[in-house]
Amino acid sequence: MIDFNPADPAFVADPYPTYRRLRDEAPVWQDPGSGLWLVTRFSGVERATADYAAFSSSKGNVVQDSPTRVGKTLGSIDPPRHDELRRIIQRGLGNARIEAMLPGIRAELADCMERLSERRECDFIADISQPILFGALGRMLGLDAAAAIRATELTKGLFHQDDGPLGSILPPETFQEIARFLRDQLDNRKQERGDDLISVLLNAKEDGAPLSDEEIVANVSTVLMAGNASIGHFFPNVMHALWCHPDQRRTLIEDPSRIPAAIDEAVRWDTSTQCFARQVVQEVEIDGTRIPADSRAIIFYASANRDERVIPDPDRFDINRARVRHFGFGMGPHFCAGANAARMMLKEIMRELLPFLGDYDLDTGRAKRVSHIMVRGFANLPISW
Amino acid sequence: MPKLTIVTRSGVEHEVEGVAGRSVMENIRDAGIDELQALCGGSCACATCHVHLDPASTGQVPAMEEDEQDLLEGSCHRTETSRLSCQIRLTPAMSGLRLTIAPEE
User: Fold this and answer.
1) Of A95, A335, A343, the CB nearest to B43
2) Which residues of chain B form beta strands (DSSP E)?
3) In what order do the strands lie in the sheet with A295-300?
4) Chain B residues with CB-CB distance to A334 below 8 A
5) Is the peptide bond before A67 cis (omega within 30 degrees of 0)?
6) Which domains does chain B have, with CATH numbers?
7) Which of A91, A323, A332 sits opposite B41 (nearest CB)?
């Protein structure tokens, strides 16, 4: 008998024993409470991420997606339209564009460290992670100071509202407000173009790319939310993983060339986006179990990343691990479009921040974890150094 | 079996007996060379299997599709002989192909 209760504080604190039990006993399992099918082994997750004919994204990729976004975002469209749209959007997130943003991020980080120079403790989320990442996001989207604050306000409730661990990620009215906010930004860029992502997409549209204003707004809203919920959880999770393994943290301070490996291992070991949803549109057999058509499936990247059938000693965090395939950024056509952007930004930030914080301590007793099934991260995380 | 010469970032050369029908990315990984991240698993979605072909090898491989071209455009280490190794399916005619793994972004 599987005991799956994502609202249980023990699950929120450490979901990995539950994932292991599911992998061992029921790798494709229907939760009787929600009706959702949970796919937890590496093999099943690999199949589901590749087989978009059976595991469709057309009803959205979060447990309950918003009608304002479904059918317009990369995460809620299947190939071939997905691939066509992805080529356009990926141009705005290319490594060369991120590289050009790095001096601004370094300046943001220097300001942050200056503010903290007289302090010895703070909330890592509110005082370090959010100011740096929202600054970077504002830069990427070409937001002025007031708009950047508004964007922060609009997304701060993401995954934090009280709709339960399987519920909507934001209230419907907030989705609409985000769309209105970005529509205004788009209208501004039509008057005055910049070098930001919205301008890049607008330029592509005017050059003949098949892209509607609604698609620009919806996909930029994904970037806005990913800045909050994906890298926004990923960054503190890296810091948490290194706090749990102080010897490896010291290695990174002595040899910063290992930082990229540590970032990759952290996103495998404690994956910030734990799972994504798919609509099963035709009956499919996976890991020996049949899922009927018209079912909703949740594919657990975080569980596949700990699957001992594929990854040696997967519960061990090891920055010197030989490279392994994992789902820290997904896999297949829906592989995270911002993965390289996130990795490049974090590498830059960690190189400066780790020596500044030295042998930092986290007060996990006072920290609060986000309790939505899709994410692993902290709502607040007291840090001292 | 087609032969491949793979040069790692540190300049070490590996002569490999490749498997036709598998991608160059898979052949590099199968040879135990773990410098390629190939994060998206070969879906032409991430550009982390970037290699530089030896200029003499460029005529052995088919031309790039538009999506590969677009991804490489965003790379900081693009050269005239850049390719994503997941997008080249090895054939017997490619024997002698020589490539270097591109620097990490």
Assistant:
1) A335
2) 3-7, 13-17, 50-53, 82-84, 97-101
3) A28-30, A37-39, A295-300, A275-280, A55-56
4) 45
5) no
6) 3-101 (3.10.20.30)
7) A332
SS3 content of chain B, % helix, strand, coil (to 5): 25, 25, 50
pLDDT tens for each residue of chain A, 385 residues long: 788 999 999 999 999 999 999 999 999 999 999 999 999 999 999 999 999 999 999 999 998 888 888 999 999 999 989 988 888 888 888 888 899 999 999 999 999 999 999 999 999 999 999 999 989 999 999 999 899 989 988 988 888 767 788 888 888 888 899 999 999 999 999 999 999 999 999 999 999 988 999 999 999 999 998 887 889 999 999 999 999 999 999 999 999 999 999 999 999 999 999 999 999 999 999 999 999 999 999 999 999 999 999 999 999 999 999 889 999 999 998 999 999 899 999 999 999 999 999 999 999 999 999 999 999 999 999 999 9
Q: How far is CA B36 from CA A114, A352, B9, in A?
A: 38, 26, 10
Strand A378-380 relative to strand A368-369, pairing: antiparallel
Place of tokens 């079912």: A295
Q: Does domain A9-384 have CATH number 3.20.20.70?
A: no
CB-based contact, B104 to chain A, within 8 Å: yes
B/e letters for B41-79, b = 16+ CB within 10 Å, e = fewer, are bbbbbbbbbbbbbbeebeebbeebeebbebbbebbbebe
Distance from the A283 Cα atom to the nearest Cα atom in chain B, whole angstroms: 24
- 3-state class (DSSP) for residue A105: helix
Is B30 touching A (CB cutoff 8 A)? Answer: no
CB atoms within 10 A of CB A306: 23
Task: In whole angstroms, give the CA distance from residue A272 to residue A377.
Answer: 6
Residue A357 · residue A245 · CB < 8 Å: no
Contacts of A264 in chain B (CB under 8 A): 37
What Cα–Cα distance (Å) separates residue A116 from each residue in A12, A106, A109, B35?
30, 15, 11, 37
The answer to whether residues A104 and A366 touch, using CB atoms and an 8 Å cutoff, is no
* Cα separation, A193 vs B34, whole angstroms: 42
Report how far residue A210's alpha carbon sits from residue A84's, in angstroms, rounded to the nearest whole number: 8
Q: How far apart are CA A61 and CA A261, in angstroms?
A: 28
B46 inside 8 A of chain A by CB: yes
Domains of chain A: which residue ranges?
9-384
SS3 of residue A2 by DSSP = coil
